[in-house]
Amino acid sequence: QITLGRATKDNQIDVDLALEGPAWKISRKQGIIKLKNNGDFFIANEGRRPIYIDGRPVLGGNKWKLNNNSVVEASA
């Protein structure tokens, strides 16, 4: 699994989204991408703001299946 979010000295993540825009709008743990046993990738939104997958919002607490070449955008 890969974690997306905002790194702090107490919170290490795999992809630091704060390097790309306003850090205060990114949750420390914005999302997690997981590989399922069947080979599918899913993203779970762990933050308060939506994550956009191919232009569709995925709200906090929800998950979405990623397709080949999906575009993932954090709401910053």
Automatic annotation (TrEMBL):
One of its GO terms (cellular component) is NSL complex. It comes from the Eukaryota. One of its GO terms (molecular function) is G-quadruplex RNA binding. Residues 2-58 form the FHA domain. It holds the Pfam family FHA. One of its GO terms (biological process) is positive regulation of transcription by RNA polymerase II. PROSITE patterns: FHA_DOMAIN (PS50006). PANTHER family: MICROSPHERULE PROTEIN 1. This is MCRS1 protein.
